[in-house]
Amino acid sequence: MNFCTLFDSYYLDKGLALYRSLERVSKEFHLYIFCFDEKSRQILADYALPHATILSHEDIESEEEKLPVLKKERSKAEYCWTCTPVIIEYVLKHFPVESCTYIDADLYFFSDPRVLFDEIAEAGAGADVVITEHRFSQSLKDRRLLKRSGKYCVEFNYFCQSENSKKVLTWWKEKCFEWCYHIYEAERMGDQKYLEQFPKWFEGVHELQHLGGGVAPWNLGQYRLAEGSDIQADPLQKNAAQNFLDIRLVTKKDGMEFPLIFYHFQNIRYLGNDKVNINSCIHDKALKEAIYLPYLAELERVRSELNQRGITFEGKKSYASNKWIAFAQRNILQYKIRSLSDLIELKRVR
Predict the structure, then answer these.
(1) What DSSP line would sit under 176-198, residue for residue?
(2) What CATH class has 2-212?
(3) pLDDT per residue over 187-207, tens digit each?
């Protein structure tokens, strides 16, 4: 299982948590990490991660002459989105791999993703490319999200070495070079809405079916904890995350039970040094704490290590290149609280 991801030192805590979650659930993986600043590259090189190859943004920028120009025109987040198909292509081109799967740096694996690759293998030639649905509900709010963000999420995107797969990847890359902004349009939004065109224009595009791959705040409300899920471990224990790997969920609609493979911890926002707004989008306290507490404990452990290496983390973040939207994202959105139980005291996991 060959994965790639990208981040800079601001996301270094999440990137290390991602790597450690994979290492905890599987030894049969390799993660190609593209560091988007020198600080993150140096620190990861010092860690000497046995299942990782550390690369630099300069590796791709030296091959794609458009990137240095686009880098000046787009926000940091928009530039990272622009580079998503580029890093997948780079791994397929430069390393002896049969496939490469892009994963977001804020994913965390609770159990072995091999089951997802088994699904891909069973699909055969029908899965040269794999995309993952947001799996929005049919509520009015989610229909609006579908219109804004698209049917598919850039979070777990598989491409193999076939000519058909490379054709899809090249098309996606060229579209991202042409336009990749944090602006909601009918046919475009960042690098994401382009994925809706994959099944329309190309063969061999498979939608990931396993519900355990792609659980996230935007669909968590459709599930409940299954009886017997191991959620009683103390998150302060050194290996506490190991006790959370057997989390099973049940769909509210039809009672289908499945293991949680990975969760997308999108939009967690720290409120100073004492609290975090997890933005879970649900009110089920037991469910959110079963998933979020072990992850927050992992982040606190990683942050403590990185603080000793001179890395600190700012609570504010933004995506847009528009300065007014970016200001609101950096200074207002962290205080948007949907549920009081989304506010978690960090002393609980330290």
Answers:
(1) HHH---S---SS-STTTGGGGGH
(2) alpha beta
(3) 999 999 999 999 999 999 999
